[in-house]
Structure formats: structure tokens, C-alpha cells
Amino acid sequence: MTDRTTGPDQMTGATPDNGMRNANRANGKPGPMLSADGTPLKRSLRRAQRRQKIRALMLIAPLLIFVLLTFIAPIADMLFRSVQNQIVSDTLPRTVASLERWDGQSGEVPDEQTFRALYLDMFIAAERKEHTRLGSRLNYELTGVSSLFRRTGRDVDDFGEVYEDAFNDLDPKWEDPTTWARILGSADWVGEAEGAEAPGPDFELRDDVASYLPLTAELYGIFAEFIQTEDGDSPMEEEPWTLVYTALYWDLQRQGFAYSGPEADLVRAAAQAASGFENVSLKALFIDSDKDWGDPEVWATIKTYAPEYTPGYFLNAVDRQLTPDGVEKRPANEQIYGILFQRTIFMSLTITISCILLGYPVAYILANLPMRTANLLMILVLLPFWTSLLVRTSAWKVMLQQQGVINDTLVWLGLVDDASRLVMINNQFGTIVAMTHILLPFMILPLYSVMATIPPSYVRASKSLGATNWTTFWRVYFPQSVPGIGAGSILVFILSIGYYITPEIVGGTTGTFISNRIAYHISSSLNWGLAAALGSILLAVVLILYYLYDRIVGIDNVKLGG
Q1: Across all residues in the chain, what is the average pLDDT?
Q2: What is the DSSP string of 259-297?
Q3: What share of the chain is helix, strand, coil (3-state, %, to 5)?
Q4: pTM for this one?
Q5: Fewest CB atoms less than 10 Å from the CB: which of 186, 281, 292, 370?
Q6: C-alpha distances in angstroms, 480 versus 176, 355, 447, 455?
């Protein structure tokens, strides 16, 4: 109880509040309200509220973490994948850097230096089995690139054999893996690696070798790491890639080359003889491997999709494409996604309207029957939930096909000629029928839960005032059931717009949704970027329609009962 200074409830004596008030009176100031422990009341209240907020946050923390991990994080990952494009720059870093100075409008392929960069990148990518993934990525933008990268990946190992043979003919020591290890590896590493079981200690470059043989040191380091981590072998026992021989030849050609270190006589002798080695053109080797390397369009595609982030997936999702000349429309025979989005929206709305027309009378009957009878019929409404979705969809395929139950019945009744059976499967009609049946309970349940709360006295009062049955229904009963229609429509529409199993089975070529294409790119073509872009657009469409629904109808008017 708060101690008062006046009135019948006044508390006298030494209390915290009276002591504070007396002190403040002496100073001519009013005293603040205090809690029982002498703390100012405002501070005590803030502390109590803070504890309540922390307690509430701890209660919802498990659900919040679950939503973040299973809903927010996948959506964020999908949005990131729709613009991610690091595979080109990660797989061909030297080529991408060299292409920056190439003019894609010149109509000519890049120079020899760019082909050298491609050789280095392609060789390493082929060893790591990454070139096929890159080819598949670029094949989405230019047909034929996938096979181009596969063929070149098989041939690129032979491009440097001429230099390998030249070094080995010059001195057999170049065939000995330990020679390379002593030249390029640190003394400590060589000492530990000799006699050690494979893969041995992690490779370490000699401190000053990069100043003499920069490219050779870099590529030998990549070779040594690959041999140890991927093959489980030791660089002391494996002869280097032909790529390393090629790099050594290029390093020895540098002006003012000088070397002092392990195997100095061997290296200097190679430097003197290198000028007499056959100098092959990598540009000619690549074009001999596949003539498409002589096509400027291939190089323009690589350059166009070199950035780490690209709008290309979203452009493809709206039937556009990113080309070296800018954004262009895809050919008319390749424009499929716009049609699929329109079809998905149209059929989802049709299914929603069908569910309203079929579900409203059922929900009305359930809401106005005696409880015992309504509960029995509700079991029939819920019965489809106890049956597999695949079984229900397959059943409709059996019923709707031209030799199915419905056509056989119509022929037996004489309503349809046997030679003119109805085509009700593998089209939009089959998808609408099957999905309406599957999603109907999601419309009936919200409608029933709202209708069950409408007082029957409203209907009786309307009729007692002279209204007809139709007027009573339309002016009194129906407006009160609209929140149930809204709730059921949202459920059915959002579920139908993302369905893909049922359209895949009964839709054929004209009854499939955009979700079927998304599933195809995820599981078959492995074009996850395009699948993510299509999914992002579909999510945006749903959010826009949801916003329009809220503006027109009002989400506050949606009820699931009560």
C-alpha cells in the first residue's frame, strides 16, 4: 500500500517514503515515489518490465530460431543463389583478368596471352574436375559450351608435352621428381619429406624461388597441394604436370634471367637451351582441339558472365537474356516462362473459385446440421487427408483418361460416342479437377469454422421481418461468412500456386505450373540459379497479390472462426 501524507490512510513514523519526503521538504523539493525497498518507483517498474520482456523472448526463442533456420535462411539462400555467379571467376581467374583488355566488339578472338591464361586455368580446372561444372553453367547462356569444355578438358593435358619432352631430352634429371622438389621446395620440407610416408608433410616453397621462377613456383605449389590432398601422394614421388614444364619454359624465357640455388647448373643449362625449344602456339592448339575456340561469341559469353554477381538468371526467368550487346528478348520459340507464370496465376484463381463454389454449400450444410450428424460428415471431409497425395492424384489419372471410368460411363450411357471420348487428362482441365479435389478441404474447414459462429437468431429475425430466403441469405448470412471465404481463398490460392506433384502427373504439357519448371531445374538440369530466380519471382507475385488482397478486402476481415 502506498503511504499517504494526508487522509485516513496516512502512515506515520519512519518509512522510506516519509524519510524521503522530510528530506525533500527541508530542501524545498517534492519527493519521488519509492518502492518498498527504497528504489524509485519508475526505475523499479522499468526493471520489472525489462525482466518480463526477457522472459517472453526466452519463451518464443525456440520458435524464432526454428523459423529463422527453416524459413528465413532458405529464402535468403534462394535470393543469393539467384544472382550468384562466382563459378566463372573462380574457375578461370587468369582468363577473366586477361579478357578485361579484350574488345568483344572487334570480331576477333583474344590474343596469345589470353589463350595462355586459358591454358593455365583449364589445366588446373580439368585436374580438379571443375571444368565440366563451368561448361554446364555457360551452356545455359550459349548452347554447345558444355561439350566444348569437356573436349578441351581431355586434350589440354597434351598441350605441354612438347616442353616436357624437350626438358627430359636435355637432361634425364628433369624426369626425377626429387629434382623439382629440391629446386622449388624449402630445405626443411625436403629434409622432412625424404623417406617420409606419403603424402608426407605439407609442401613449403623455398623463400627466394618465386623471384627466379615465379610462374613455375606458383603452379608447382598448386600441383604439390593437389597431389597431397586429392591423391594422397608425395611430390617427392610424382613427376609434375606438363603444365609445370610449360611454366618453367616461360620463366626461362624472361629477359635477364639468373638463378642461384639448388641444382643451379641444371637450371642454367636449361635456360641456355630453352631458346632452341619448339615454341608452340596455344591459340592454335585450342582451336585444333575445338574450332569453337575460334568463335568470338564464346569468348564474349565468358566475359559477359565473368562478374561474381549477375542479373542473367532473373532475365532468363522473364524470357530475356544478357548478351555482350546488352539485354535482349529471347527468340519467340524460347519464351516459356511468361506463359507459365500467366498459366499458374490463372489456374490457381480458377481452382480457388472452384473450391469456393463447391465448398460453400458443404460448409453451410455442416454448420446447420445437428452436431452429431455434422461431426460424422466432417469425417468424410477430412478423409482425403488420410490418403496419400500421390494415390489421390493417380486415382484421378485413372478416372479421367480416355479409357478411364468417367469416359466408359459416358459411353455406356450413350452420352459420348466411343470414337469421340473426352480428353480430360494431360491438360488444364485435368489439373483443375484433381487439384480442386485435393484442396477442397482447405476451403471447407475455414468456411465451416466461421459459419458455425453465426447465430441462427439473425436468420430467424430477418425472416420474421418479412425477408425472403434469398434476401436473408444474401443480406444477413453471406456477409458474415465472407471472412471464412477470405481465409479459405488465401489458403487454397497459396497452396495451389506452389503445387507441382499433381500438375506433373495429370497436367501434361499444357497443365503444368511454374513450380514444375522450378523442380526440373533443381533436380534435372541442376540450374539452381535459374530455379532460385523463378522461385524469387513467384514469391514476389504471391506477396504482391497478398498486398492487393489486404488493400481491397482487408486482412483483418479474414477469420478462421470465433
Answers
A1: 87
A2: --STTHHHHHHHHHHHTTS----HHHHHHHH-GGGG-HH
A3: 70, 5, 30
A4: 0.77
A5: 370
A6: 90, 19, 10, 10
Q: Residue 249: what residue type?
A: Y
Domain ranges of the chain: 16-81, 88-157+283-308, 160-279, 337-557
Kindly indicate the confidence band of residue 549, based on its pLDDT and cuts at 50, 70 and 90.
confident
Cβ neighbors of 501 (< 8 A, separation 6 or more) are: 389, 390, 393
Percent of the residues in the chain that have a pLDDT greater than 90, as a whole number: 44
pLDDT at 29: 53
**What CATH class does 337-557 carry?**
mainly alpha
- Interior angle at CA 124, CA 123 and CA 125, nearest 5: 90
Instruction: Give dist(CA 471, CA 477) in Å, integer.
Output: 9
Give pLDDT tens digits for 159-213: 999 999 999 999 999 999 999 999 999 988 988 888 788 888 899 998 888 888 9
- End-to-end Cα separation, the chain, in angstroms: 40
The 3-state DSSP class for residue 327 equals strand
